[in-house]
Amino acid sequence: MRNTLVRRTVLTASAVSLALLATACGSDKKDDTKADAKPSGASSSAPAAAAKGKTDAELASLLLTQAEAPKDSLVKAPSADQLKKLAATTDKAECKPLGQAASMEPQGTSTGVARTQVGGTSGKAADPNASAEDKFKAGLELLAGATGTSVTLTSYDGKGAEEAFAAFKKSGTACAGGYTMTQDGDALKINKVVAGDPVTAGDESVSFLADFGDAETPMAGQVVMVRKGNTLATFSVQNMSGKPVLSKDIVDAQVKKLG
User: Fold this and answer.
1) Helix (H) and strand (E) counts for the chain?
2) Closest CA to 222 of 212, 123, 75
3) How far is CA 123 from CA 138, 211, 237, 244, in A?
4) Residue 39: pLDDT band by 50, 70, 90 thresholds?
């Protein structure tokens, strides 16, 4: 009887617990005691409902705000025109999740999406009384240290978030040898994809560094994905110096809001 119930459970994709299966199988045994004649709590419980994804509005309320962002950073939502220009295609189907992450597009079939951008710099402004030369140097440092982090939240029904996360993780490995991404009519050659900065956040997380520089100008972009329940937080990091360093403060602050 147990094998029959297990097979039926798999075929119907029912969320029946192992305790319920054990109780059902044990019901064939004769027992005259009243206590055993009563149905157990497990057998009378209903199957667990599948997780429901959040809407655009619900995700928007969970986005990192200016007050919650690291000091000296600026938080601003991307415009519709920016998002249109960011939309990307890839020459290899297996690399599509990486392209979507870099362009703030939802992974898989999401129930909602919300986006924002966080800008900051590691450079420091020159003293007002500094010489013209020192002010110029400080300006260059501000520019070189400028980092932009795009934050995209997406939510899913059921196991959708886990599946989308797995597809993104697989994409990073499958596209290690590089691919070509096209945005707003311009093709960008990604030379290689390697592991990015280590990230420990949410239920699971992964990071990749996409190199698209050349011998004269080293450039790279870092994409990070964190899953918290049925919501994904995707971070795409760019730096003017070509060496994007993920802000742990931004990741921690955003993931904290997801619960």
Assistant:
1) 10, 10
2) 212
3) 7, 24, 17, 14
4) very low
Cβ-based neighbours of 2, under 8 Å, separated by 6 or more: 21, 25
pLDDT grade for 32, boundaries at 50, 70 and 90? very low
Instruction: Let me know: does 234 contact 107? Beta carbons within 8 Å.
Output: yes
pTM for the whole structure? 0.73
Distance CA 116, CA 81 (A): 14
Domains and CATH numbers, the chain: 2-44 (no CATH), 56-257 (3.40.1000)
107 secondary structure, DSSP code? P
| pLDDT over 70 (residue 13) | no
- Residue 69 reports pLDDT greater than 70: yes
- Enumerate the β-bridge partners of residue 155: 112, 231
Q: Please enumerate in sequence order all residues whose Cβ is within 8 A of that of 62, keeping only pairs 6 or more positions apart, or say none.
A: 54, 114, 153, 231, 257, 258
- Smallest CA-to-CA distance from 247 within 77, 89, 72, 88 is with 72
